[in-house]
Amino acid sequence: MKPLIKDQKNILIVGVGGQGVLLASEMLAAAAAQAGYDVKQSEVHGMAQRGGVVSSHVRIGPSVQSPLIPAGQADILLCFEQAEALRWVHFCRPGGTVIVNLQKLVPPIALMKGHSYPEDPLAGVRRRAARVIPVDAAKIAASLENSRVVNVVLLGAVSRHLDIPPAVWEKVIEKRVPPGTAPVNNQAFKKGRSASSL
Amino acid sequence: MKQTESSDVILSGNEAVARGCWEYGLHVACAYPGTPSTEILEAIRQYPEIAAEWSPNEKVAFEVAMGASFEGARALVAMKHVGLNVAADPFMSVSLVGAPGGLVVVSADDPGMHSSQNEQDNRYFAKFAGYPCIEPSDSRESKDFVGVALDISISFDVPVLFRMTTRVSHSKGIVRLGERTAYPIKGFERDFKKFVVLPSNARVRHVWANERLARLRAYAETLAINRVEPGDPSFGVITDSVAYAYVKEIVPDASILKLGMSYPLPMEKIRTFASSVKRLFIVEELEPFIEEQVRAEGIPCEGKKYWSNLGELNPDLVAKGLVQAGAVHSSRPVPEPEPVIPRPPVFCPGCPHRGVYYTLGKLKATVTTDIGCYTLGALPPLNAGDTCVEMGASIGVAVGMAKARKSGKGIVATIGDSTFLHSGMTGLLAAVHEASGITIVILDNRITAMTGGQHHPGAGKKMGGGEAQRVEFARLCQALGVTRIKVIDPYDLETTRNVLSGEMENEELSVVITNRPCALYPPENRKKVREKPFRVDLEKCIGCHSCFKVSCPAISESTEKTAKGLTKSRIDPVLCTGCSVCSQVCPVQAIVRIP
């Protein structure tokens, strides 16, 4: 028998094309489903490979209807990039949690007149959200000598705020990462998990 | 509570359609790629029981599926909404023939135009042709409804329009897997009066098609996927597609009539439902397709008064409309977003299109462009794209402009390889026939890149990677009657400029073909495309920002400044593929290859 699911969580994962937002949200959805949740996940791709904004809605609970999270109702906003945190912060519910990777990706348009990358995106996020957890995922990934595990570090960070057993996460990571990289990904996950305490 | 058994998997709507095809015994599937429909065929590829292939365009894909259905096979054709415009001729005419083996026509509409040039509502196509329109609202239904659609198609001898939307196609949910049921292929049964739509036969068949629609109307009344969910009688909602999920989210206790088939409508069921509630709302994305029909029956209802026909719906918009209507009393305030710098998509590092559009922009050409990644060449800072309407239009539009100007000088049509094979060849024939003086650039990157890297007849590969005959563009153009054909390396800016400016000046029709492959697809080619990356020599960089003008994501501002306070450039060595285009625009040779 699976445990009875009562918990309902809306997680919005945002970033820039190529950062691994979609893979991270697929892994989160898979872990939630294995833990017995109903799951809906929604993203729009097409421009994802070309440096565009990527957002993925993941909703888990006893029964999920809409694949989209209403604005202001995300329990957790997981941001792979600082300016993207600011773009999507209005999706976070009052009292919700914002996890922000410290990476900044300045789009080429910032080189043109009339556009500029925000001076301090994190400060802007803090103005609108009470609970902001910065995570230096690149630094953690560098400590593991593998720059490609950034998305799994961030997955670890978000896992701390969800009721999904560690064994389930481990199984999902093993299944979804390239062969032979499960140990480093599991380490990345654990480091991310411990980095996201307040 | 939902339990995840071993047979439960998470699938996107498109993957679920593919799974449904397998489980319900489909034999043949084809498509031309187009967002948001592409993944249907990509997922079908994993099932060897289904003969699947990319077609050169949607019309051909439709005809191949139609032929398979004539042979008695269960067939499916998938396309994006605007693809159905291309396939509209067979789509409309086969109504009078029927689909003996079963024919499911997937139209993936794009409300909100995430990746399209318009947001036409293809439910009208079902009404136009007199076909049933089946609309799943999530992944589970996307799989199950393939079975419903095939059943209806076979029993009524009618093609079925299976309407997906971006949100249904690309959202994921838990789907319970089943086994495949195999069906024999009956074989073609000759029937002159049915399969040959000469006017004398077609007139008789039109009467038959009308009768078929009447039978479908009656069938709609009993169809289980048109489902009443009884609830609070103060108002009722008729809804379809993903709008259903938003309505359930916002007013879970409302009375709902959920239409799994939105054409023909079950009018008696709707009448009964309407009389069971005090007010009736129609919540549907895009046009008032259901609303108009319900009104025409004299049943009072409200819909587009509260929900716009523009863009996608979402839970917030459904709530807002209900509040406006006074049906629900309060709604949370919707928080306003922060203004943040946009991230328009850009050409990838190493993209072979960059040099062409950079040059066309510099030459101030009138550029009629087309549908594909290269449409991005119209955006600043490249600014080389003056018109873009639909697949293949670049050449016809250029011919028309030249006709009106009485000169083709300076007019350049740019078109991708896949788009050229899709619907550019006939435009080129017009250019040849009319001796138009335009210049046509075929951007041959050997793949359909925009939709994620699908093969086409110019790629020399079949779906899944098997070898296929490769169309040679130079020989093809020669055979179509073009005499001036030049092949250029778009990484070589000087030659690109010389050839393009020469051909723009020339009053003869010319075709220029670029010869570099896509830097992104297929993924196994990425290493081959990559050469040693470049770096900025900060001693030499004068901060003129000429390199910014090639719009490469690998180039950004460094922290260094010149004596005049201008920011020097930097190149990300991980992103840089070594294409060298930026180094050729640097006036002081400050961009050098890393040895």
Describe what you observe in this structure:
- The complex is a heterodimer of chains A (198) and B (595).
- Chain A has seven helices and six strands, in the order βαβββαβαβαααα.
- With 198 residues, chain A is an alpha/beta fold.
- Chain A has one domain: Pyruvate-ferredoxin Oxidoreductase, domain 3 (3-Layer(aba) Sandwich), CATH 3.40.920.10.
- A six-stranded mixed sheet of chain A has the order 2-3-1-4-5-6, sandwiched between helices.
- In chain A, helix 1 packs across helix 6, helix 4 crosses helix 5 and helix 6 packs across helix 7.
- Chain B is of the alpha/beta class and 595 residues long.
- Chain B has four domains: 215 residues, Rossmann fold; 99 residues, Rossmann fold; 175 residues, Rossmann fold (3-Layer(aba) Sandwich); 63 residues, Alpha-Beta Plaits (2-Layer Sandwich), CATH 3.30.70.20.
- Chain B is built from 21 helices and 22 strands.
- In chain B, the strands form six sheets. Chain B has a seven-stranded mixed sheet with strand order 3-2-4-5-7-6-12.
- In chain B, helix 16 packs parallel to helix 17.
- The longest helix of chain B is centred in the middle third of the chain and has 24 residues.
- Chain B is globular and about 80 Å long.
- At the A-B interface, helix 1, strand 2, helix 2 and helix 3 of A face helix 8, strand 8, helix 11, helix 14 and strand 20 of B.
Key attributes of the depicted protein:
heterodimer, A: 198 residues, alpha/beta, Pyruvate-ferredoxin Oxidoreductase, domain 3, 6-stranded mixed beta sheet, 7 helices, 6 strands, 22% strand, B: 595 residues, Rossmann fold, 4 domains, 7-stranded mixed beta sheet, 5-stranded parallel beta sheet, 21 helices, globular
